[in-house]
Amino acid sequence: MFALPLYVLGALPPWPPVWTAAGVQLLAPALLPGLAAAREFATAGRGTPLPYDPPRRLVTGGPYAYVRNPMQLSAVLGYLGCAALFADPRLLLGAVVAAAYSAGLAAWHEDAQLRRAHGERWLVYRTAVRAWLPRLPPWPGRTPATLYIAGSCSMCSGLGGWLAARAPVALRLLPAETHPGRPRRLTYASAAGVRASGVAALARAMEHIHLGWALCGWAIGLPGVAGFAQLAADAFGAGPRRLPGPARPAVDREYP
């Protein structure tokens, strides 16, 4: 999305390398909601951002629990950030075009389409979640997901206590001993069919705390990052564990 305009314009950052590196790091979080939204379309919506293959169900999890237009928001912020990073005001045109298209034709078309497809559920969601300004806590109106945490594992119990203390939104914390499959890792499951285990499950759980932790979770969920983080966690003792017989639950709480 950004590489082609930068190539065509021949834009190069005029700043010292250390400033450029700092600018890239500041720009990266703005792109995370858009990347996570594309993943959410595929995993929860069973579709893509493309008009001819839209999601089959209303997607309200992941970045969509915070803002209705995460992809468009990331695009606008990305162009604004690139304009500053490359000191090229021509890139501001990309932000203007992306915002105008998203707030105009796309919003009108998508609103009508979603209203027909999902009716009252879409209207309730649209009322609660803003199009461009993200919420700080995620929207609580969706069906709660579940995080299974082993009560027989002291490390897992500590993690469960840490999560419980932050009162995650629309997330149930249940003992892994109650899971029919008796998972060997931390396991996340949502009503939309999203499944994750280990570090990826923790990243998903972070999405239920607030926007700051959600950004961390989306970063961990990037391709390659979750796998590397899982290898590191396993190396430090957070590898898979076989559940013993029935154990006392570490956490058994549900948050709205």
UniProtKB/TrEMBL annotation:
Zinc listed as a keyword: no
Main location: membrane
Membrane topology: Multi-pass membrane protein
Source organism phylogeny: Bacteria, Bacillati, Actinomycetota, Actinomycetes, Streptosporangiales
One biological process term in Gene Ontology: methylation
Keyword Transmembrane: yes
GO molecular function, one term: methyltransferase activity
GO cellular component annotations of the record: endomembrane system
Protein name: Protein-S-isoprenylcysteine O-methyltransferase Ste14
Keywords linked to the UniProt accession: Membrane, Methyltransferase, Transferase, Transmembrane, Transmembrane helix
InterPro entries: Phopholipid_MeTrfase
Pfam families: PEMT (PF04191)
Compartments where found: Endomembrane system
Segments crossing the lipid bilayer: 65-86, 91-109, 211-233
